# Entry
Amino acid sequence: MMSNKYLFHLNTYNDVDHATPVIYKFLSKGDTVDVVFLSDFDYENDYRINFLAQYERFSATRASQLDHFRNKIFFNRLTRKMQNNPVFGNVMKIALNMLWPNKYHSRTVASIYEYSGPGRLNFY
# Structure
């Protein structure tokens, strides 16, 4: 049976609190779960993250400043409007995939976000 990979984007204590049961369910079924923290939350010392870290198919990391920079440059309001242009949109997709690929989305079947709007890291 092939396992699925899920990518969670979390920020705070409450996000971890609400997502932990879902992550645990995925892990107990043999799926892979990656968590990317978009804030300065101290996830390394969080007891729920430490519990989930017992599973081989679980990883947690913090989005780097470079990731946030990439998001602001290529996915701001202006560039999102310009992506509707067939020429600019295709050039941008090719450039991003070849020059600055998204390292988090390899084989991901679903990206799960916390409560804010999805116009965040890895959405586009």
User: Anything to note?
Assistant: Residues 5-69+105-113 form one domain.
